[in-house]
Design brief:
Blueprint: H1 3-44, H2 51-61, H3 65-80, H4 83-86, E1 94-98, H5 102-113, E2 117-121, H6 125-135, E3 138-139, H7 143-149, E4 152-155, H8 162-174, E5 182-185, E6 205-211, E7 224-228, H9 234-246, E8 250-253, H10 256-284, H11 295-308, H12 312-320, H13 322-340, H14 342-351, H15 354-362, H16 369-381
Parallel strand pairs: 1-2, 1-4, 2-3, 4-5, 5-6, 7-8
Antiparallel strand pairs: 6-7
Domain Chorismate mutase: 3-83
GO molecular function: chorismate mutase activity; NAD+ binding; prephenate dehydrogenase (NAD+) activity; prephenate dehydrogenase (NADP+) activity
InterPro entries: Chorismate_II_sf, CM_dom_sf, CM_II_prokaryot, NAD(P)-bd_dom_sf, PDH_N, Preph/Arog_dehydrog, Prephen_DH
Length: 382
């Protein structure tokens, strides 16, 4: 094949790859919406099959109807499937959410769509009112009201507020007259948090949790969540993990020290390098859409921009954590070694087989790198 023809073929394939990324994203969104519709149908007692509606959809597809019929059939099977039955709320369980920021809102939507009765409180009333209007959760005027109405309490306030909220919930529960069976938070770091659960009533299961996903995650996907035991109440962590297991999550029980050591790298380290990179780029790169930027660099840049979109207070809290400070000190030492003796550093990396360890760990990534790169390319071309 002549060089010019091969170049044209590759360009066409790139265009197909970009379209595939868009189509797959739209299909995933359709899948999510169809499951939501299935949940509503079951709630209303309506039949899953709506022949007239399917006929209208296929008619719009025109000559692609035979192909699109497979999509419609797949989505109907999702609505009929076990997913809607297995991950439903037990009738006696109700959820109370204290703090309805981005992640609090995500969990409010998640629990509502699985049939839970959800009540919520936030120090910013407009957040509660907005969540109530959009999701149909019950807006509460105080933490006491949330606790009184809920068997499970989820604390999703800013990280620095979590210890005080835990203490307040403990005080409310000590006064009696509640039906609460479980309390947990979703803070990103556990330093200064897990020990706050000591002294909770024995009948209340307590643990600290950390979702390994963000507020943009799809409601219908099976996500991972860490469950961190409270010292002396390790059996409680198993109960909290089982609660999330029943709802379709993949759970990992890990102690606070291990958790924070890992988060100092995956959150603290990656955020720090991304912010520094973004700061340097702002000074040196005049055209970030320049065609000479390679895919890896573009992916890193998109991630850096995403980090800069985080709440400043959250970033400050992350970098003030002792585990993150220790990591940044270690990074400083490695940077100094790279500057003064790069060969020695690279040989040390090879000797420890770090590359092989990272490759083994990367096998668990849910999206192929090629798809991610394609999406990044489309961001820069838009």
């Amino acid at each position: 094949m002549a060089l010019l023809e091969e170049f044209r073929l590759n360009e066409l394939r790139k265009e197909v790859d970009a379209l595939d990324a868009i189509i797959l994203g739209l299909l995933r969104r359709r899948e999510e919406l169809c499951i939501k519709i299935g949940i509503e149908k079951k709630r209303l007692g309506s039949p899953i099959l709506d022949a007239k509606r399917e006929e209208e959809v296929l008619k719009r597809a025109g000559r692609l109807a035979p192909l699109y019929e497979r999509v419609v059939s797949y989505c109907r099977e999702l609505q009929e499937g076990a997913f809607l039955d297995v991950h439903r709320a037990p009738p006696e369980e109700s959820i109370g959410i204290i703090g309805v920021g981005k992640m609090g809102y995500w969990f409010a939507e998640f629990f509502r769509e699985r049939g839970f009765s959800v009540s919520a409180y936030d120090t910013v009333w407009e957040r509660v009112a907005s969540t109530s209007r959009k999701l149909g959760v019950e807006a509460c005027l105080s933490p006491e009201e949330v606790v009184a109405k809920s068997s499970v309490i989820l604390i999703s306030t800013p990280m620095k507020e979590v210890p005080a909220v835990i203490e307040n919930v403990k005080k409310i529960l000590e006064s009696g007259g509640h039906n609460t069976k479980m309390v947990f938070d979703i803070a990103s770091f556990k330093e200064g948090i897990v020990e706050r659960y000591r002294g909770f009533p024995n009948e209340v299961k307590v643990a600290s949790t950390h979702p390994f996903f963000g507020p943009r995650a799809r409601i219908v996907d099976r996500h991972s969540i860490a469950v961190v035991p409270v010292p002396g109440r390790e059996d409680n962590a198993k109960a909290v993990a089982e609660f999330f297991d029943r709802l379709g999550f993949k759970t990992l029980i890990v102690d606070a020290g291990q958790h924070d050591a890992l988060m100092s790298i995956t959150i603290g380290g990656s955020y720090a390098t991304s912010i520094i990179l973004a700061k340097l780029l702002a000074k040196t790169v005049s055209d970030l859409k320049h065609s000479t930027l390679n895919a890896t660099f573009k992916y890193y840049l998109v991630y850096a921009l995403n980090v800069l979109g985080e709440d400043v207070e959250f970033l400050v809290e992350v970098f003030e954590k002792d585990s993150v400070k220790r990591l940044l000190e270690a990074v400083s030492r490695e940077v100094a070694l790279m500057r003064t003796a790069p060969r020695a550093m690279l040989e040390k990396i090879e000797a420890r087989s770090i590359r092989e360890k990272l490759l083994e760990g990367s096998k668990s990534l849910s999206e192929p790198a090629s798809i991610i790169y394609t999406i990044v390319e489309s961001v820069f071309e838009s």
